[in-house]
Amino acid sequence: MAASVVIPADRSPANRVDDAITKARGAHDAGVGQVWVAQQLDGDAIALAAVIGAAVPGLGVGTSVVPINPRHPLLIASAAHTAQAAANGNFSLGLGLGGHAIEQQAFGITPTNSVQRLREHLTVLRAINDERTVDFHGTQITAVDSPVMPVAPPGTTAFPVYVAAMGPRALRVTGELADGTLPLLAGPRTIEEFIVPTITGAAADAGRPDPRIIAIVPVAVTDDAAAVHAAVADRLAFYDQIPSYQKVLAREGVSGAAELALVGTAPSLTRRLKTYLDAGATDVALMPLQTEWAELAPVWDLAAAF
């Protein structure tokens, strides 16, 4: 896949699962081969990906992304295996380190040494995928297979694991243990100068294949770019306060995340999206900035034609 799409979270429909399936089917009918769904507190991403994968045969489905806190990797793996079976082998697990402020507010936890937890989390998933068993005792996580409760169901295939890694240590761990990265709002300069050399170098050192770099890019197809930019600026301003994204903004030479959104006509967006591939991204995932069907259909067409 050169271009996939993110199914936007929409809280307005009476049944959001049915709505997500309808949007995913619309994307697939337009020629899109892969969709991604985000984790929310009022909806589970892995479960939703499983339902979509079962409802739309042949469509690739993935999570973008499931935070590694506070869920244990054995439970993540069991859910991912279920989704992989439901999607007939077309499921991808996207993980993230999580937002500390959100986790403190929602769960009452303040994660420490997130990169070490990521390493241990991925080590467990790698063992389950590659060896179909696990016996791991880390500083933050213990995961042990049991004959009574095996960790890998028979007949299922391994699922690829991607991490929304932004910092240098997280990228190195991802290159060593995962199959690639899902950076959001990482512009071409960040991809070329920072993400590609960091993650591919780590993968090479670990003897692993070159990782996939799936750049998630906010987009809106419109003839009125100025009006759409003004409408979505507040939505993306959240990222301006996160240190890892602040470093990206500085590297890209912009003052806010909204400046990294691609807004304009389909031909202009196609040209700008190609700069991500030129910079070293293996794929792009288009994240729609609008949710109405009439606004989503051009995004599906853009992804399918890219």
From TrEMBL:
Top-rank lineage group of the source organism: Bacteria
Keyword Translocase in record: no
Uppermost EC category: oxidoreductase
UniProt KW keywords: Oxidoreductase
Gene Ontology molecular-function annotations: oxidoreductase activity
Record domain Luciferase-like: where: 9-258
E.C. number: 1.-.-.-
Annotated InterPro entries: F420-G6PD/mer, Lucif-like_OxRdtase_MSMEG_4879, Luciferase-like_dom, Luciferase-like_sf
Record's protein name: TIGR03564 family F420-dependent LLM class oxidoreductase
Organism encoding this protein: Mycolicibacillus parakoreensis
Lineage of origin: Bacteria, Bacillati, Actinomycetota, Actinomycetes, Mycobacteriales
